[in-house]
Amino acid sequence: MKKIHLVLVVLLYTFFSANSFAAELSEVKGKITDASTQEPLIGATIYISDLKAVTTTNSLGEFTLKNIPLKGRFLMEVRFVGYKTHSQMVDLATINTLNISMEPSVVESAEVVITGSPFSSNNKTNSLSVVTVGKDKLAQAGGTNLVDAISRIPGVSQVSTGGAISKPTIRGLGYNRVLTMVDGAREEAQQWGDEHGIEVDQFSAARVEILKGPASLLYGSDALGGVINIIDDLVPPPGVFNGDFTTSYGTNNGLSASSLMLQGNDNGFVYRGRVSYKNAYGFGYKNTTVPNSGFNEFNLNGMVGLNKSWGYSHLTFSRFHTNIGLVEDGPNEQGNFVNEDGEVISKAEAQQRRLGLPFQNITHYRTALNSNFILGKGQLKTTFAFQRNMRKEFEESATEPGLNLNLNSYTYDVKYYFPNAGKWEPAIGVQGMYQKNVNKGDEFLIPDYNSNNIGAFFYLKRNFEKGAVNIGARYDYKKINGQDLSVDGEQVFSSFNNKFSNVSGSIGFAYEVAKNLVLKGNAGSGFRAPNIAELAANGRHEGTFRYEIGNSKLKQETSLQFDLGLEYTAKSVTFGLNAYANRIFNYIYPGNFNKETKELTNEAGEIETLPVYRFVQTKADLIGGEASMDFHLVKSLHFENSFAYVRGINRADDAPLPFIPAATINNELRFEPSIKGLGETYIKVGVSNVLKQARFDSFETQTDGYTLLDAGIGTSIKTKNGKLNLWVTGQNLLDKKYYNHLSRYKPAGIYNPGRNVTFGINVPFM
């Protein structure tokens, strides 16, 4: 299988690139102006996502987009701060000069997205609900990791393990039901685990697109709940070399985070390199520091590629490495943390940056080859990726891991976009993945296994003057083989060979029913094969508070979701409303049935009693919605509000589903004054209201509601090299003691982090 994938990569890359390098170069010139004053806009960004082509306007508002095909239809995006984002379809065979007038706006209009459709598209014509978070907002959020930074998007939550680990959930679905995309490829990093977070450098994200709802049509199994698409930086225009340095410090856990990036474009030869480092001691709340909850992280990533008239081909590679301390026990009745001898751990001891036992050591390698070959008026997009995830968990020794999982994943994604005139947009694709997991430690939670899956889809979009409709169908097939294992004559795992297949489909529309008012609807089915832990887990590993037992007889999950949305964007107000109903057949979840427990004896001879969780299936419903309303009655003043709610129902007994986030109401007042010599200045105050979660499964407990106060201030100083960005973000400023319902430390009596103030600076290089 490895050799087959390698041969495919080499053949495709060699054949298409060798026949295309000689293609004649083309370019598009134009001018960007203010629609009312006709003054040139200096520094506007022009970007064609499907070609990875970018440029900016000069002092006259003029631009030249180089190294692009002679023909083909592509969606072009023009962005400039303080103006409505402009997007239009351009036919390179007939257009070589463009004059674009942009309208001033205090609101962010719908922008081009690449998630949820094979084609880059204006979000107004996308039938699925897709939200975009840009790089500046990611930095200003003050999150300890990438998921933490996006967790206040309506409908998005996180399963957290202290400040180091966050797993995304979308509309009540998480784990293997939410797919994470990095460098154009699905991330595979043992994401079935409670304390297994996203393993990607958060500094490398230029923006994050969040697709809410089933996306199995385009992404296959594991996208039943949605997609988190992490998109890297834009390559610079030809002849440009630049970079930046970002650093920040957080007061709650002493988190210092820094990243240096350099990139360039030498007449179509593009390259980028980044190095990042993070270090934190244990997080705290109300004069209490949680010992051994710190972490450190060191990341390297880079890219080399070609942007030519035949398209582009980029090779990305990264090494993500982290050490994460794990908390075994919560505080005693007096609220103090104690060591093995029963002695109180002082705050100074808890704030040591040296990790103690137990801790995780995780290394994740990723390389991906992303290409788009222009074949006449059609396009062939390919992504071939290899990932190696090495997860070690140290319990009794700092040198010999107990659990040691090694997972190799090979993925491929090939899509062909048929020539079109901009009205009918057909595409077909095939995707697949081969995985092999090996246990190299002396503890076992999941067996050695290999899996192979393949999927093929057809997608068709019809564009109209005021909207679009789309339809598609997909077939998936997956097989997974688990190996037998006995230790000291005791059966740990029994072998199994499971096969799953499914046909899924989707139909949707987006239509501008009135000026600035867009109605969206989508009906789609989803599919997810059980993951290896659900099928075969048998054990407990550090970082969990339970013993899990899998079930190799589990069936695949399938879902049917209906989503309806309404979006209104005017000069001084924006409004969004989404409602959805999602029925999942054979929904898989763990339960502590009949209060079953298991006694384990550690190496010290101590007996530990853990609740036993077994994986079972039921029919489930998730019903909910999100609403947002932003007022901009004064140009410099923004009042943003959002609400999200989801209700999970176990149809077997009408009981609540486990791990459902509480309803949230978020409000933020943002003031953006104009100050001479400064740019993009803002002052913001936000209030997050999380309501009581009174609906919970039998093994959960009620979680009280709480209110958090946040604030922030930032600005940019113009320099000859660009702009120097400064910001300060405060979270939970009233130092509220609270539990989030999805916090994995809640059962141990450990509160979520208290007050935190983050100071950040970004320095550009030209």
From TrEMBL:
Keywords recorded for this protein, A-Z: Cell outer membrane, Membrane, Signal, TonB box, Transmembrane, Transmembrane beta strand, Transport
Location(s) in or outside the cell: Cell outer membrane
GO cellular component: cell outer membrane
InterPro entries reported for this sequence: Beta-barrel_TonB (IPR000531), Beta-barrel_TonB_sf (IPR036942), CarboxyPept-like_regulatory (IPR008969), Plug_dom (IPR012910), Plug_dom_sf (IPR037066), TonB-dep_rcpt-like (IPR039426)
UniProt-recorded name of the protein: Iron complex outermembrane recepter protein
CDD domains, per the entry: ligand_gated_channel
Biological processes annotated in GO: siderophore transmembrane transport
TonB-dependent receptor plug domain boundaries: 126-227
Leader sequence residues: 1-22
An MF annotation (GO) of this entry: siderophore uptake transmembrane transporter activity
Family the UniProt entry places it in: Belongs to the TonB-dependent receptor family.
Transmembrane found in the keyword field: yes
Chain ranges of the TonB-dependent receptor-like beta-barrel domain: 248-728
Origin superkingdom: Bacteria
Primary location class: membrane
Membrane topology value: Multi-pass membrane protein
